[in-house]
Structure formats: structure tokens, C-alpha cells
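Question thread 4412

I'm putting together a teaching handout and wanted feedback from people who do this every day. The idea is simple: show students a protein as raw sequence, then show them the C-alpha cells that encode its fold, then repeat with a second protein so they can compare. Below is the first pair exactly as I plan to print it.
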Amino acid sequence: MPVVRTPGELLGSASAFSPGEGVYQKGGDLRASAVGIEKVSPPPNNRASMRSGISWLSYFQWGPVFVPDDLLLSLSLLVCKLRVMPLRFQGLPVLSILRAAQSRAAVARVGSLVLGQVTAVNRMLVEVAVLAVDGHVLPEPYKGAIRAQDVRETIVENFDIAECFQPSDVVRAEVLSADGRVYLLGTAADDLGVLCADSKAGGALQPVSALLMRCSLTGQLERRKVARPPGV
């Protein structure tokens, strides 16, 4: 099944892949710079690297050499032959993001799953740019919104929506209403919510629990409504 990636999402390690179209390197990580389908391509054609290797060919040529002391010395001549050998090396697979075809259109319906990026967080509402619907990347983002009452199954007293989402977070959500110009989205299910995010320090946030994510740089915890990883 195609994997849809969103801008800033962690894709893999630079030690395992080479960045292709739609991918950039940040430190030792590769991240998506565009919305699209992840694609891994074989390494480019092997390139021949001319590297000098030395093949030693040794032989000894003996001959008498007379010196004033009438001592017989042996002269040893070492001849080395330099042979240039082409060595081939294997490159890394290329990780790319395939952008959506401009002619493709996806229609969201109630129950559809979407991927989006948080653009603004208000006291009772989260604004989302919907980037993909049911695995289909959209040519242009749609407007979406998550209301405070649709974030979790139950809302506790003194609920703060800013402890669930922050601008630039990448989220997975369910379409609750698709009748108007703005999709109403929900993240109540365990596998819905924040997929990836950046910390206040600029590091990648890694899921710790349903409520917390840890900064890869500082180790500090930040609160989010975390989407449960697949298979967990």
C-alpha cells in the first residue's frame, strides 16, 4: 500500500538512503520536503573508481661486487610493478517523494482518513491543511478543522487544546463532516492524532505514550494527542 508522506516527516537515516526528489537531509536524518508517495529506488549504476593497488613482483639479481676490502657483497634489487585496478562500489538506495498528479482528484467522505498539517491552534479549534485523503495525495490542500470536543473520546475539565496540537504537527484524522467548504475532522480513536512533530528545541518528537512525545535533541517531554503507531 502506498505510504503518503508530508513535509518535515522523518523518512529514514542518511546512512541507509540517498536523498532524491522531494527529500532533504537534516543532520543524519532524511525528511520529506513535499506531500507525496514515498518511493525507494535501486542505487544508481555502479561507478568504477580507479584506485591504485600494488602488486609486488620481487626477484633477486645476484652479482659479485669488488670493494677495496676484497669483500664480496651481494646486491639485491627489488623491483615493484604498479598495477592499477578498477574497484567498484555499491551506492545507497534513493529515497524520493512522488508528488500528486495534477489531474488526480480525491473525494473525502464521512469516515475517510486524512493526513494533514496543523496551520493554527485556537482556544477551541485546530486548523488543518488536509494533504491526502484515503492514501491519495491532493493536488491542492483542503481546509480542515478539529473542534475541541472531537479531539478525544472524553474531554476533561480545564482541557487545553494546545497540549494536543501545535502548528506544523502532522496529523492523521477521520472526516466527521464533508458537506461544507471545511472538513470537520476528529482524532478520538487511539490511532488518530499527531504522527510526527518538531519540538520547541527543533528536534524530532518521538512517541512515548498517548499523551507525551520526547525531543530527540534534549530528551524533554512535550504533550500531544499522539496517534498510536501501527501494530502497537
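The second pair follows. I'd like the answer to focus on this one:
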Amino acid sequence: MSLDDLKQQRAITKKNISRIKTVIGANAKGEGKSLSAAELKCRLGILDSYFKQILSVQNKIENIDQDDNGRADIEDLYCYINSQIQHQLVEDGHNTTFAESSFAIAVPSNKLPRLKLPSFNGKYSEYKNFINSFKQIIDREHGLSNIEKFNHLLNCLHGHALETVKAFQVTNENYPKALERLKTRYDNSTLIFMENISTLFDLPDVSKPSSGQLRSLVDNVSALYSSLQSLGSPTDIVNAMLIHIVMGKVDSDTKRKWKDSLDFSKLPTWEDCSNILERRCQYLESLDSNTISRRQDHHSGKSNQKLSKHGYTFSCYKRVCAFCSKSDHYIAQCQRFKDLDVPTRFEN
């Protein structure tokens, strides 16, 4: 991202912070709608989100332009608004700490306890719990703008889940798009079902008599089984467990072939898995046949080569006399050649 883009992003976030300043200032003067303690705390949490966001942008700007002096204005603006909100909360008798405002929403009308905002790091099996809680606490809160809801959403996300939506600019229009992006990515019943199966097999063993460990095992299995029942039939559960056991016993290449063949719009069956394994067997058998054939051809070629070499060696060592043409001796042992005088030997 260029320096101009970063400065533009800083200006947008600073404008949002200034808007909170205007709202808090109007509330202090008794102008417009009076803000309740819950609304003040919510504004404090949103202010915190904006402050973290703009500091991140400011750090990137300073890495490019070390002479930039925007940090002081940002910190002064944040401290002023934060102190004003804290002051108004004290006057209303509803003091709160900065940390509490970032993680809780109070409901003073019926004295219910505070609900902590849920968090989500990208684990498929936890998506439905997260999104249901988030919608109940934040998304259905009519007193919050989409920008405020978006900042709460970003605060709740971590890891891969945050990577999924962090490219969106924080605007009113992008908030529903970010929710839809999360839904498209993580609301996949097949992946949730398969992850629950894996979790079931990864539960720790109870190696010794322990009521606590045994109770934990029973509770976890019961919860996972209930979740699986809501996602598939008993036959689907049996199929998935059988596939998990078999895939745990095959080589990594075969396991990868199976995963590549999956259609994540429906739950896999043992028949699907069996067909893939059967084709894999046929493929490996064809490789084995080709290997045996090549070895036989190679061995045959070596045998022919040895025979040819042996025949050539035999012809080279055949005993033939160059003088009398007899095959039982060489010329050096030829008696007729020896009987000749020396000049005659050279002539012959």
C-alpha cells in the first residue's frame, strides 16, 4: 500500500473518531438524543477499535515517512474523547474501565449480567456458535451503526478468520459483505461434520480411574454426537467414522487423492471412499506390472549381451598356425616352420 493510500485510510478512521467526539460533545451539552450508560460504554469500545486501527496505519506511515507528525494529534484526540466518556459515565453513576468496555456489552434495563463478545479463530466446528452469539449481542443491536458493528466484528476475529475479512474497508456497506464472506467460508456443513468426527477420535484417553477425566470424556462425546446428529443421519455418522479409520491407515499420497476427490457440498459415503481406493489399487497395480516388464526386458538384454561377448572371445582364442594352417598349434610351435633356415622363414 502506498503512502497516499495509508494517509487516506488514516483520514477516514480519524473522521470516524471525530464523529464520536461530536456525539459525546452533544450528549454533554444535553443536545439531541441523550445517551444511556450502555450506549456510552459501547461508544468507548468503538473508540478503542478505531484507535487500534489508526495506530496500525500510523506505524506503517512512519515506516515510510519518518517525519510524519500525525501521531500526536491522534493520541490527543483519543485521550480527550475517552476522558469525556469516562466523565459522563461517572456522572451517571455507571463507571466502567477501559478494558471492560472493549469486551462486554451491558444491559442495564433488566439488570442482566454482561455478555462477553464471542471470539472466532477459523475453526469450522465453532462457526455457528460464534455467529449466533455475535448476531444476538451485536448484529441485532439497532442502536449501533454498521461501522460500529464492523469494528466489533474485527475485534472478535483472530487468525485465519480475521484474514478472511480484513481486506474490506470499514464502511457501512462492507459490513454485510464481511458477514457474507465469513458465511461462505465457514458455514459448510460437510467440513463442520468432518471436523467433529476428527475431534471425536482425537479425544484424550482415560488412562487411569478418574471421575473427572471420565466425566469430561462422556460430556465431550455426548456433545459431539448431538452435533453430528444435527448435521447428518446415523448412516452418515457410521460412514464418516469408517472413512476416518481407514484413512488413518493409508499412505499420505492415497490420503491426498481421497481429499482431492471430495465434494464438500455433500457428506461422503463409504462407497465413495471405496471407489477411490479401488481406482488407486488399479493404478498402483499398473505401475507394478510396468516395473516387472521393464526388469525382465533389462535382464534379457544383459543375457544377450553376455552371450554375444562370449562368442567373440571364443573366436579370438582359436588356435590356428599361420604357416601350415593346422588348428592344433601356433606358428611358434610349428615343426615345419622351425626346419626352415632363417632367410627362408622371412620369405614365408
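Top answer:
Good format. For the second protein you could add a caption like this: The mean pLDDT is 80. The beta strands are 104-107, 112-116.
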